[in-house]
Amino acid sequence: MTDPAVDLVIAVHDPARRIDRAVASALTTVAPLRVTVVAHNTDPAAIAERLGAAGIDPRVRVVALADGVRSPAGPFNHGLDLATASYTSIMGSDDELELGAIDSWLTLAERTGADAVITHLRHAGGVAVPTPPTRPRTRRVLDPVADRLSYRSAPLGLVSRARFGDLRLTEGVMVGEDLPLVTRLWFSGARISYDRRGPAYLIHDDAADRTTMTPRPLADSFAFLPHVFDAPWFAGLPPGAREAVVVKFLRIHLFGAVTYRPDAALWTAGERAALSDAATRMIRHGEGAERLLSRRDRVLLDAALDPRRPAEELIAAAARRRQFSRPGALLPRSLRYALHREAPLRFAVASALQLR
Description:
The protein is an alpha/beta fold. It has helices at about 20-25, 45-50, 75-80, 100-110, 160-165, 180-185, 220, 225-230, 230-235, 240-260, 270-285, 295-305, 310-320, 325-330, 345-355; strands spanning about 5-10, 35-40, 60-65, 85-90, 95, 115-120, 120-125, 130, 155-160, 190-195, 200-205. It contains 15 helices and eleven strands. A seven-stranded mixed sheet has the order 3-2-1-4-9-6-10, with helices on both faces. Strands 5-11-7-8 form a four-stranded mixed sheet. The longest helix has 21 residues, at about 240-260. The protein is globular.
């Protein structure tokens, strides 16, 4: 086929996945499209069989990658290496696109001159995903700090191959492989638009082993940090940008690591040390990001920083910080930061507005 407008890459490691649903939803696109399904450490013939009728569409190709690594970075990067289109896109094998999603992204890119378009997300059950919690009014081009782009952790939508054709997911890490890529992308100075009201990207929960909910050694969970903090491009960001990145890392990744480990037996000395090391790294690079956290967040952060604190104290602090209606979850320790865009009050309002 001639070069398409979009190269969509879908990585799949098990023919039991609903890859047929994902591909079929993409094939409703009117614009020239190529779908590359990367059979990762699995028989490509079984994947082709699972695709059924979608697999014989000339816009679909199945390629194999056997690298023996349990990470989606390799297969996604393999698909991106094969791309020739003006825009690339990636998609989870369990997920689905609403009718016309890719066409809507392309229309927005053309209208705004965007180098990247992010799609809005919904769970397949109908509930919207309120990330990123942008400013409420629709804007042609987003600001990475003012629109809190750090909270979008995956490059779902369109990415210009001319501008970002060299960007790849980080190989060699087991989780967070897309975070260095998106952080560099969001803070690159590129024109980024948000398809706020178009057809959604639907997240399905078919897979029982979605890795984001699976506790793993914390050394693996935070292995992505050096790929962000030690990169020259991160050091070159203005202080407000580094602050925005780190406050998100603290809220989502550090505190999430505690939330998903509610059993004190999981908190070995090695895990407490790894948690403390990650927290220390974040604070060191965050331009004072911790001052924007709620009072209850700071209690949890203090416990994370000190491996001598009992695990039960750490777990209790993680539970209390999620009682979001309490004053301690809404106000920072210093009230001078109460109305900062990353402080709890404005962040909560912005998140709620994404659900409207």
